[in-house]
Amino acid sequence: METRVRYAPSPTGFQHIGGVRTALFNYLFARSTGGKFILRIEDTDRTRYSAEYEENLYDTLAWLGIDWDEGGPKGGPYGPYIQSHCFENYKKYAEELVKNGKAYYCFCDSERLERIRKIQTMNKMPPGYDRCCRSLTDEEIKENLAAKKPYVIRLKVPLEGSTRFHDVLLGDIEWKNEDINPDPVLLKSDGFPTYHLANIIDDHFMKITHVMRAQEWIPSTPMHIILYAAFGWQPPQFCHLPMVMGNDGQKLSKRHGATSCNEFRNNGYLKEAIINYVSMLGCSYEEGRDLFTLEELGKLFKMEHINKAPAVFDYKKLEWFNGQYMRLKTDEELFELTWPFIANSGLFAKDDEEERKKAGLRFADETLQKPTDEQRAVLMRVMPLIKERLHFLTDAPEMVRFLFQEPGLLPVEEIIPKRLDAEKTKEILTRAAALLPKIAGLEEHDALEIFKPEAEALGVKLGDFMMPIRMAVTGSRISPPLIGSIQILGIDHAITRIQKVITECF
């Protein structure tokens, strides 16, 4: 039997990292088994639905390279893959359950339900419907329908016994029926299905063989099993994935940092780093190895290698992955990745956010501005220098700024190394200005051999000798390797900056 799995998000917000992991695990399982990965849009929550969120879903998966086989704009043989297009079908099957005695009409209005809630709260009773309409006679039901009284359709949850299901990861799970949400609504009074009804019907007719979703759905699964039995359908295999937690042991949220994929994207993370790191949140692949392509992960993924314990999201580890993948980029690739961040930083022109919106640009890795030939040439020369020092793509603008803008004069105390004084620092800069013509065209090692004797003659360490030069030339303590930076900027230009610092700061 062909493996068929699905990612079925509700477009009520931007795609977050937990949803990305669910999509990724389903995708990898499909690829590892030669099956199909289906994308389904569960948009029954019309109050919070937004077309922008739905578009963000497609953008996010496309950016990450998580390609689906059926669903969304692609369609497929088991559509529609958007729940709002299937309301008549859901109503038909809800009515079928009523006809077969597995569900019933409930005519209780909102006022009565609110009174029940208040009584339960006051008496510290378990919340839930009191099953008042479950015992209505056929005559009472006919009268209410004839009077066009609004109704919902509720599932008849067995009053006794228990419901059991097997989870691939967690083993056998059993719930007493008395602990299941009492007779949940399947079809609302406006004809909209609830998640539970639409989910089961769609999974059945789309021939879903495995449901991989977060462990927060475990309490709903017994209800789903009862629904499958009510329809006489075979349920899929379930695998409830462990939660993704912050370092404080709480569910990952905004208080821990970026959580939506947009935020990671705008903060300068590479898609390869996100894919690689998220795929390893609670799952193992090949021992002793950290870096995998998406294709490799699709071959190595095994459901039994998923951990039962919650996964802890470590931003430092993700940063490490990001750095590793940046080192693997060619200079041309790194230029293409960093250019939007550089262009949108205002380095060459003020970023016009309104114009970007009009053009349909949503992310920091898109730009209205194209590089000039001169800008490209300079940036391509500096790419090898910044590659080893980048943690995020967003680091690039400040690292290259000194090549295109004159640095402002820094407070003299920032230019003076901790172990030196103003007089010694001025002497270093004076000697450096005289030495720079000698390093023209030299590699870093050879250039440093020229600076070392001068540092020794002044009785200072080479690092303390170079720091004031760096500050004068680049305006920052953090910059690409200094010798290479000077070669790109130009010897004469570097000397002019050093002399300006000597004149105006000392």
Please explain how this structure is put together.
It is found in: Cytoplasm. This is Glutamate--tRNA ligase. With 506 residues, the protein is mainly α. It has 4 domains: 4-81 and 245-315, 3-Layer(aba) Sandwich (Rossmann fold), CATH 3.40.50.620; 84-241, 3-Layer(aba) Sandwich (Rossmann fold); 329-403, no CATH class; 412-505, Orthogonal Bundle (Arc Repressor Mutant, subunit A). 45% of the residues lie in helices and 9% in strands. It contains 21 helices and 12 strands. It has helices at 17-33, 51-64, 87-99, 110-122, 138-146, 195-205, 221-231, 261-266, 271-279, 294-300, 315-327, 331-343, 353-358, 373-386, 396-400, 412-415, 422-435, 444-458, 462-474, 482-489, 491-505; strands at residues 4-7, 36-39, 70-71, 103-106, 152-155, 162-167, 171-176, 185-187, 210-214, 237-241, 244-245, 311-312. The strands form 5 sheets. Strands 1-2-3 form a 3-stranded parallel beta sheet. The chain has a 3-stranded antiparallel beta sheet with strand order 4-5-8. β2 (36-39), α2 and β3 (70-71) form a beta-alpha-beta unit. α9 crosses α11 and α17 (422-435) crosses α18 (444-458). The longest helix is centred in the first third of the chain and has 17 residues, at 17-33. It is elongated and about 105 Å long. The model has no long low-confidence stretch (mean pLDDT 94).
Number of helices: 21
Helix content: 40-55%
Biggest sheet architecture: 3 strands, parallel
**CATH class designation of the largest domain:** Alpha Beta
| Distance, first to last CA | 80 Å
What structural category characterises the helix and strand content?
A: mainly alpha
CATH-level-2 architecture of the largest domain: 3-Layer(aba) Sandwich
The CATH topology of the largest domain is given as Rossmann fold
* Secondary structure tally: strands: 12
Mean pLDDT: 94
For the largest sheet, list the strands in their spatial order: 1-2-3
**Poorly predicted runs:** none
Please report which band the strand proportion falls in: under 5%, 5-15%, 15-25%, 25-35%, 35-45% or over 45%: 5-15%
As for the number of domains, it is 4
Q: What is the CATH superfamily of the largest domain?
A: HUPs
> Which term fits the overall shape?
elongated
Rg result:
31 Å
Main location: cytoplasm
Protein name: Glutamate--tRNA ligase
Enzyme class: ligase
Family: Belongs to the class-I aminoacyl-tRNA synthetase family. Glutamate--tRNA ligase type 1 subfamily.
